[in-house]
Amino acid sequence: MDGFSSHTFSLINDKNELFYVKWHFKTKQGIKNFTGERASEMRGIDPDYAQRDLFEAIKRGDFPKWRVEVQIMPEKEAETYHLNPFDLTKVWPHKDYPVIEVGELTLDRNPENYFAEVEQAAFEPRNIVPGLGYSPDKMLQARLLSYPDAHRYRLGVNYDSLPINKPQCPFATYHRDGTMRFDENGGPAVNYEPNSFGGPVQDKHYVERPKQVSGTVARHDHRSDSDYYTQPGNLFRLMPADAKQRLISNIVGSLGNGVPRRIQELQIQHFFKADPAYGEGVAKGLGLDVKHIAEDTLVSAD
Questions:
Q1: 3-state secondary structure of 281
Q2: Of 208, 207, 190, 210, which Cα lies nearest the Cα of 199?
Q3: 3 state DSSP class of 109
Q4: pTM of this prediction?
Q5: How far apart are CA 164 and CA 151, in angstroms?
Q6: 128, 129, 142, 135: which is closest to 21 by C-alpha?
Q7: Considering only 68-82, 191-205, 226-240, which range has the smallest mean pLDDT?
Q8: Is the pLDDT of residue 302 over 60?
């Protein structure tokens, strides 16, 4: 499958210019899917099918690969772009910011110790390299704090010293001691700055450039952006006819399973607002009154 950063990150060049970016990982294997019926069947036959397929492909040297691409938005353009470039629920139209290929991601080794290399792995968006930065993306800002906190709870305060999580480059922080500290722990050196004992000194080369901030700070009203349906509708309209039908069939299968009729109707109104054909397809699949729901959709829109 393809993968996307969803969040907006940033890149800073050697001239200290900042650009906002969206990351894309496009599979070089192609995309194939089970039908809903076949997926249900496989849950009983081999629930680990996808994981096994990945493991065995790597084992035989058929390494999965993804084309790494970025969309790049100059910092100044983010201030006036017609979409909020830091809204996790929005995508940047490719006609405005085309994807640029920058590399390749390859999975070329399976874990040898599942517990040590998988169960104890701690992924978090704050792990970046020089030149890469964050953005005012509100959900990203929350995750920069919440992911490390979850790892500390699950694995312990020194989770980032475990071999699977430890940086492979020279790396130093002021972090010392704590439960299960198992390395040399900085020895007798001091771990604060300023100090008079030849201890650490901040390298200003790695200080992120300051950002100009203006405006009013207040609680965000998510209703200030009421366009929840244009992009989902655009995605639906991009789908080929057979993909649209599979999508509708899958939704009908889930929405028809013990869901009260009133909830079904409310949900279908969302599909109508994205695209009338979308709402009509789901309503017909559930045997509901298409005309009645379409009229209710118009009333709620008003």
A1: helix
A2: 190
A3: coil
A4: 0.86
A5: 13
A6: 135
A7: 191-205
A8: no
- Reported in sequence order, the residue ranges of the chain that DSSP labels E, i.e. its strands, are 3-4, 9-12, 18-27, 65-74, 100-106, 132-133
| Region for residue 189 given its phi and psi (left: phi exceeds 0; alpha: psi -120 to 50; beta: otherwise) | beta
Tokens 């390299």 belong to residue: 129
The identity of residue 263, as a single letter, is I
- Asked whether residue 152 carries a pLDDT value surpassing 90, the answer given is yes
**What are all long-range contacts of 113-117, with beta carbons under 8 Å and residues at least 24 apart?**
116/162, 116/163, 116/164, 117/164
Token pair for 233? 């509708």
What are the residues facing 4 on neighbouring strands? 24
Assess contact for 71 and 100: CB atoms under 8 A: yes
Is there a contact between 27 and 66 (Cβ–Cβ < 8 Å)?
yes
Q: Is residue 138 within 8 Å of 86, Cβ to Cβ? A: yes
The percent of residues above 90 in pLDDT, for the chain, comes to: 64
Confidence tier at 173 by pLDDT (50, 70, 90): confident
CA distance 30 to 63: 13
- If you average pLDDT over every residue of the chain, what do you get? 90
